[in-house]
Amino acid sequence: MKASAGDVFCVYSRQLEEYVACQITKVKEKNQGLLLLLDWHGKEPLTPEQLPALRPMVMDYFFWQGHYNYVHVPLDVPGNYRFAGNIPPLVEDDSKSWGGWGITGAMASQLWWNSLPEEKRRVFKTAAESREEVTVAGVPVKRCLSRLYDTQVPIRRAEELRALPCLMELNCTQWYPDLVDYLREDPFLVDLRLENHGQTKLDFRGTTLRKLIIDLTGVEDLWLGERTGSLLLLNREPDRCRVHAPGEGEGLSVDFKGAVFSRPELPALSSVSCTGVEELDLRVLREWYPDLRSLRLWGKPGVLRNFGELKRFHDLETFTTVDLFGFTGADIPLPEELPRLTWFWMSSLPEDAAKTAKKLYKKREGLDLWITKARKPEWLAENLTNPFRHWDGMEGVPASSAKRAANLYKALRGTLVKLAAEPPADAMDRAREAVIAFVRPFNRMRFIETEEREDIYTALCTVLDDLPQGALDREALLDAFEEIRDF
């Protein structure tokens, strides 16, 4: 259904185990409306009798300054939202913010903030408004600093961070013996990245961490905090760690890199994300994590095996793929087979699968549907090994440049592979000419910045890495790259 001005909706929050509410206060052009979070939550859905007492939620957690949570959203109502009734809009103002219908996280954060001791909240707010500097580990920093890297501020102990009452995110490249004690005392440090820690056991119970980014190599046991909802793994290889999480992973999201691993200790895992997928079997994934509500996958590009198993994820609400293939239109589940699906995004997928998905789901109410970059078989044959494939359709990159980059890569690979198999007499001179011919056209592309420069360098390294060892002088060719580029 499409929302109208004044419509009130409620949605169930698994985190709160309660319903929360919102209102569309204004309908604008291009299927857009303004969504307002309401100051209400309850064990049962809203009833018409409760509507007159509703008020906007005033947000003041962390750096919010008593404003409304008020954003532009599509008027298409997600399937998990319940219509409660219509009352005059509670706010007439406009908004400069854009977002989605996901209101449960903001409500949970505000209610958690309200539960903290008033004195702690006052200290945070006072520091947030301060522009004074304090010295931490000999480095002057703003007292209101919210993110810190120990590579920039060389702390020796976590207790040095007490001078920063607003610190919310900490990035550590080493272990600090008092780190966990500090986390248990400071409720505001909610995001932690931990590398090179050298620990075999890590226990974050009693902390308020909501996100943990960590390399589990060498770790045997990891206990997550009661509020931790996101675990991002930096290691690309399977580890031996046992992750202890409340509810065996219920409500937890795990982000993998390169491949999804089995974590038998988390059978109730709610969400899986993975970047750099080369191959993934959905049948195996369902055996590991049968209760997934969210599945997001980005290919290298890659292949999804047994795609038809997707229909067996009966609780699935969110599904996203990018640059993944190996399936056809016949594998796309019927809408009735995924009754809870409210988000269905697929980009860069087989052409027939894209056509089928659009046909089946275009009239599904309550679904955010986005199917784009349908790929023909010819594209797959040319691009599965093309390191510039993501330039195709990338904002700011002309289509002609994306095609030119792919052709330059193809020519470089063909030439260097051929030269590596020939006598070395003049192979290096010709190889250097090939590298120069590869780089020069990129010098004329005005859109190239840091990310694109890394793509070009990585493409060259990929070719060199695939050559027989010692066939060509790798360092000399990389030097040629540096000499000729001006981007």
Number of strands: 23
Radius of gyration: 26 Å
Rounded to the nearest angstrom, the distance between the terminal CA atoms is: 50 Å
Give me the number of helical elements.
10
Shape: globular
Number of domains: 4
List keywords for this structure.
eleven-stranded parallel beta sheet, alpha/beta, 487 residues, 27% strand, five-stranded antiparallel beta sheet
Can you give me a brief rundown of this structure?
The chain has 487 residues and is α/β, with parallel strands linked by helices. It has helices at 104-115, 118-128, 179-185, 282-288, 351-361, 377-383, 399-420, 427-443, 450-465, 474-484; strands at residues 7-13, 18-28, 32-42, 58-59, 67-68, 70-74, 82-86, 133-136, 139-142, 147-149, 169-172, 191-194, 201-203, 211-214, 221-223, 230-233, 242-244, 253-257, 271-281, 294-305, 318-325, 343-350, 368-375.
Can you characterise this structure?
This protein has helices spanning 104-115, 118-128, 179-185, 282-288, 351-361, 377-383, 399-420, 427-443, 450-465, 474-484; strands at residues 7-13, 18-28, 32-42, 58-59, 67-68, 70-74, 82-86, 133-136, 139-142, 147-149, 169-172, 191-194, 201-203, 211-214, 221-223, 230-233, 242-244, 253-257, 271-281, 294-305, 318-325, 343-350, 368-375. By secondary structure, the chain is of the alpha/beta class. It has 4 domains: 7-115, no CATH class; 117-244, no CATH class; 265-384; 390-484, no CATH class. The strands form 5 sheets. The chain has an 11-stranded parallel β-sheet with strand order 10-11-12-14-16-18-19-20-21-22-23. A 5-stranded antiparallel β-sheet has the order 6-3-2-1-7. The model has no long low-confidence stretch (mean pLDDT 94).
